[in-house]
Design a protein that fits this description.
about 300 residues, alpha/beta, TIM Barrel, eight-stranded parallel beta sheet, 10 helices, 8 strands, about 40% helix
Length: about 300
């Protein structure tokens, strides 16, 4: 039984593990040398301890069945509270086969890499039926919609399957590196109109790759905009480790994101939500977080 009096756990809602000889990562380019090596739970565990973090949600980073086998193994580590697996949601038959292939421990959600695919297939009847089943299984769907077409199709899905918890990663890829604002701001506002859509405050690889150095001041106005739209009950703090190592060490990235959010929310309950409570609820992690685990 969960101890309702236990403090809310602090959760890093988005990070990855990989072994470079186990899978190809086509998204990793020649100038990403800082992350061209293995990253395993033993590498992150002392950093979590130092930062006062109770556990993480581990995300898929390549689109292949073998990724789910690797994630299942990572789920055995005590710092892993949930895994977001690979699922080819654009191909319902293949997706159902993958869901049936093996049971994944600590399964919290699904994701696939969409790049700039307009996602028109989200309106397909069989895809909608798949997402209804995903929702019924208690799984969230992580996605990074960045184009107008993607925003339109994701918002339509959110309305069509209101029980599906949709999580927008990396602030929806704001133009942090260029100093722009629209159409990103309006697109994020449209996403936020759907109560089943949440957002992660983290920095994605495109922005990190464009920066010369970590720039928390540049992130802050975009994070504030998203915070105002989604509120603490639909906002998740995340590091995007080890990708963030392109421009910052773990402590710098996490503490920076945390400081931005704590500046936005003075209430202790709101802070606890964005730093872990919301992730626990959205990903239904309470079944994997032992009572009293929070610091």
């Amino acid at each position: 039984m969960t101890d309702s009096t236990a403090p809310t756990p602090v959760i890093d809602a988005h990070q990855h593990y990989w072994r470079t000889d186990a899978q190809e990562q086509p998204w990793r380019k020649a100038h990403h040398g800082a992350i061209a090596r293995d990253f395993e739970p033993e590498d992150l565990a002392p950093l979590l301890e130092e930062a006062g973090i109770d556990g993480t949600v581990v995300m898929q980073s390549v689109d292949e069945p073998g990724e789910n086998d690797r994630l299942a193994a990572y789920a055995e580590h005590p710092t892993v509270l949930g895994i977001v697996s690979w699922l080819p949601v654009g191909d319902p038959a293949a997706a159902r086969a993958e869901l049936a292939r093996r049971e994944l421990p600590k399964h919290a959600g699904v994701r696939c890499l969409i790049a700039d695919d307009p996602l028109d297939w989200l309106a397909d009847a069989e895809v909608l039926a798949l997402f209804r089943d995903i929702a019924a299984q208690g799984l969230a769907w992580d996605v990074v919609p960045i184009t107008d077409a993607q925003i339109r199709n994701v918002t339509a899905l959110a309305a069509a399957v209101p029980d599906l918890r949709i999580v927008v990663d990396h602030l929806g890829r704001p133009p942090i590196d260029t100093g722009g604002w629209e159409p990103w701001a309006g697109n994020v506002a449209r996403l936020a109109e759907n109560p089943n859509v949440s957002a992660k405050v983290s920095v994605g690889i495109d922005v990190l790759g464009a920066w010369d150095a970590w720039d928390l001041d540049a992130v802050a106005p975009f994070a504030r905009h998203v915070a105002g739209l989604f509120g603490p009950e639909r906002l998740l703090a995340a590091s995007n480790w080890p990708v963030v190592l392109l421009r910052a060490d773990y402590a710098t990235a996490w503490n920076g994101i945390r400081s931005v959010l704590e500046a936005e929310y003075a209430d202790a309950g709101d802070r606890a939500a964005v730093l872990g409570g919301t992730a626990s609820r959205i990903y239904r992690l309470d079944r994997t977080v032992p009572a009293g685990a929070a610091r």
